[in-house]
Predict the 3D structure of the following.
Amino acid sequence: MKNTGLNHKVLLLLFLFGLSSCGVSNVVIEGSFPTPNINKMPVAIAVYYDDALKDFAYLEYSETGREEYNIESGKSHVQLFNVVLPAMFDRVVFVDSMEEVPTLGVDAIFAPAIEEFQLALPAKTKLDVFEVWIKYNMRLLTPDGDYIADWVLTSYGKTPTQTFRSIEAAINDAAVVALRDLASSLALSFDQVPEVRNWLNSR
Amino acid sequence: MNLYSLSKLSGIRQLLLVALALLASCTSTTIDEFRQGETGIGSAETVVVLGRRQASDYETRAEFVSCVGERMGRGENALTIVPEQEFVDAMFPWFEPRTAPLRTRDLERLMAENVVAEKMLDFGVRYIVWLDGHTETTDRSGAISCTIGPGGAGCFGFGSWEDDANFDARIWDVVSMTSVGTISTDATGQSYLPALIIPIPLIARVEANACSRLADQLKSFVNGS
């Protein structure tokens, strides 16, 4: 009788193990981002993150079409922009809606959006690196919501394969490198975008 | 277990240890130094060791970079080393894979930025050492099979592979903003994995040897000896 109980437990454990190996792996990107060491621009900016950015998640499928990895990077993107933008501009105000901006006395609204996310796993590329590539659409608007500039920014991150490191941890590391790449591109190229440069010069 | 079996077991253990010591030391390392300028370092000056991460198919491992830095900061004529991550974070975003200076001309341009020059002065950096390379595993051969049954488990077989570590270290003088030299290291070694019931890994410490030889050479190079 005791043996039957034990067998049931073992079977249940095996069943649960089987189930867990079939499901999608959730990867929530986590990392710390340093404050950029740059000169601030004499501009007051309102920053608006839409829900698509805040809740951004990418689903990677296996070669057989099965959902393999769900990569949630919305929170880490917000965390990154919250660190980078105050280092770039004299005054930064984070807003929940575009409607509240005209009363804030800022010069422009910055609204970033993620357009595309790609993941390359060593099992598929046959390279010894995990790679993450992200494409963004950066928008700069007047306080009334009119167009100032709209440009594409790409970021890339990779991390080598390592013994005793899980695939989830490697994806996280590659994504953090990509996010740092985004921060460096944005911080160093913001005033090089022709429309932004014209707007800054006209002020 | 009788006395005879005990002494036999201890004999096997000793043989295994000797074999392990012999095989583990099967690593050959070649160091090549090219000097382009005079070097020397003051007691208040520091060195930062950074990994190159621009290649598309590999990247210099952070563990190797920290191993070289750690070893340069130890022993006789030890240097003050700024940890890579601390330096890269403090210099953010100027030393990221896409923005890091590739030539000394780029360093000159970078030092024209007052925020970079100030931070460099805070750290007291005199030399930047750029490490570029990786370890490649080749010539894998052999096979090991393991079985598990009601009577127990065990493995049987033999595997071997060769590791080849190739690293270049380029040394930049931050004061003169010139490249003062390059040190290349090439270490190779054969690793074995015999399995007779249990697998016994006999690993050639290729990267560790490359790290220690390169760090010692870099230390004497920077000290000007």
User: Anything to note?
Assistant: The mean pLDDT of chain A is 90.
